[in-house]
Amino acid sequence: MAFDRRAVHDELERVRIEFRQLLESATHVDLVRASERTRWTNEQLLFHMLFGCLLVRPLLLVFALLGRLPLSASRLFARLLDAATGPFDLVN
């Protein structure tokens, strides 16, 4: 399976533009309103969306690296992520 860098770049650019439009069009009342089906406000939800987009590029590098290492390295990484779930949920 080939990695299509152009498609990823185009998608990230589209998301960046859409995020900017959402942010610029939102009023204070919109941002403090509760999001549907979450316990977050719209502002918190937008922050998490931005945070997720910022993490995509570094994660792609991590996954590319893990793809070149032995399977045991991926399993160890998965165990580390599983161990971090509890603290992450607590903070989140």
Short description:
With 92 residues, this protein is mainly α.
Could you describe the largest sheet, including whether it forms a barrel?
A: none
Q: Specify the structural class.
A: mainly alpha
Helix content: over 70%
Alpha-carbon Rg, integer: 17 Å
Flag low-confidence runs: none
Estimate what percentage of residues fall within beta strands: under 5%
Task: List the helices and strands in order.
Answer: HHHH
Number of helices: 4
Number of domains: 1
Number of strands: 0
General shape: flat
N/C terminus separation: 34 Å
The pLDDT mean sits at 88
Structure description:
The protein has 92 residues and is mainly alpha-helical. 80% of the residues lie in helices and 0% in strands. The chain starts with a helix and ends with a helix. The longest helix has 27 residues. The chain has one domain. The chain has four helices and no strands. Helix 1 packs antiparallel against helix 3.
Supply database-style keywords.
single chain; 4 helices; 92 residues; 80% helix; mainly alpha
